[in-house]
Amino acid sequence: MVLLRIAGGEITPQIEVTRFDTILNLKETIRDALGVEVGRQTLVYDERALLDDVEIRHCIFGREPATVTLHVAPLPEGTKIAVRLESSLKQESMRRIQETDSVAGLRSKIERRWGLRSCSIALFPLDTQMSEDLPLSAYYVVDGAEIDVQVTLIEEGR
Questions:
Q1: Confidence tier at 156 by pLDDT (50, 70, 90)
Q2: What is the pLDDT of residue 98?
Q3: What is the DSSP-derived secondary structure letter of residue 73?
């Protein structure tokens, strides 16, 4: 087995593949872990794009876990996606957002739609807390992604 660290976004999973898997098999494993469609993925190691039909054993990765960079092709401008929001308060599917929207923008939409006031909202796709100043795409938020919404009420007077 070969252990690879997948870099490129704010979430950096480690994925295990066999030496006889191809780069295409690796992309399919990344799709299963992050939700990013295979056709949107380009994998790069040592400044070279990895070709789909090459077996892992033919790649010279060095010490494990080697870091492979994932580049995700953007969706056409204006393309809307839907994500699943889950919290102890509510569950819903939110449509009409874009991968390029900011985390702060999504948080504001949730506050408005759910009628939340005097609270703190934290968003967690794939168990990683999102930073307000980044786009959703930095966390591989794609169509069908699930985001855990943690709401903390703030006591008045604080």
A1: low
A2: 96
A3: P
CA dist 41 and 72 (Å) reads 5
Return mean pLDDT, the chain.
Answer: 93
- In this structure, what token pair is assigned to residue 57? 């054993």
pTM greater than the 0.70 cutoff: yes
pLDDT at position 58 over 90: yes
Contact, 38 vs 24, CB < 8 A? yes
The predicted model gives 5-21 an average pLDDT of: 96
Maximum C-alpha span of the chain: 63
Long-range contacts of 118-121 (CB under 8 A, 24+ apart): 118/153, 118/154, 118/156, 119/151, 119/152, 119/153, 119/154, 120/151, 120/152, 120/154, 121/149, 121/150, 121/151, 121/152
Torsion angle of C-alpha atoms 131, 137, 140, 142, degrees rounded to 10: 130
Radius of gyration of the chain measured on its C-alpha atoms = 18
Q: Which of 79, 80, 133 is nearest to 107 (CA)?
A: 133
* Both tokens assigned to 14: 């480690």
